[in-house]
Amino acid sequence: MSWTYRAEPLPATLPMGVTVRRLEVTDTEVLDALGPDASWLSASWGGPRGLAASGHGWAAVGRTGRILAVACTYFRGARHEDVAVHTVPGSRRHRLALACVTSLCADITARGHIPVWNCSVHDRAGRLLAWTAGFRLVREHVHYTVGSAVSRDRRLSAQMRDDAGCPPLSA
After folding, report:
1. Could you tell me the strand order of the sheet in which 19-22 lies?
2. What DSSP designation does 147 have?
């Protein structure tokens, strides 16, 4: 499913002690500490250091300096930037991802680009976050998974990354 940024996002009130800020090179270790489940997020930047230094990532950071959620540009084209997001399991449903995505989208539009969102039809949480963040559905398409068997979560993650290669329809 391909979505483009077309509406005002809903407000995201942060819990006490959590701040949303742009990632910096000094965040490399805390990005790496997110572990293998979030490694796909920085893969298109060459790893955590590349993402941290890119200026294209925003994070919700707790009092201890731990990253609770992160949103970044996953693929950047001439006109569009694909948004990727990850929230650590214990911090979900607190609108941290929404706050990160909202900040990232403001950055993307300030660069004169159009934020886009891609996710699987089976990714209910991703679809709800996209809608809440101001994205609207542009197109649905089918992806097939071939090769060795993989877990459902890994397959959905791969589908989300593959979806990013499909350019959205122009508004």
Report:
1. 19-22, 57-61, 67-76, 80-87, 114-118, 2-5, 135-139
2. S
Q: Which of 63, 135, 128 is nearest to 104 (CA)?
A: 135
Whether the pTM exceeds 0.90: the reply is no
Query: What phi and psi values does residue 90 have, to the nearest 5 degrees?
Result: -75, -5
Greater model confidence, 144 or 167: 144
101's tokens: 């995505």
Q: How far apart are CA 164 and CA 166, in angstroms?
A: 5
d(CA 87, CA 62): 12
Between CA 75 and CA 81, with CA 77 as vertex, the angle to 5 degrees is: 55
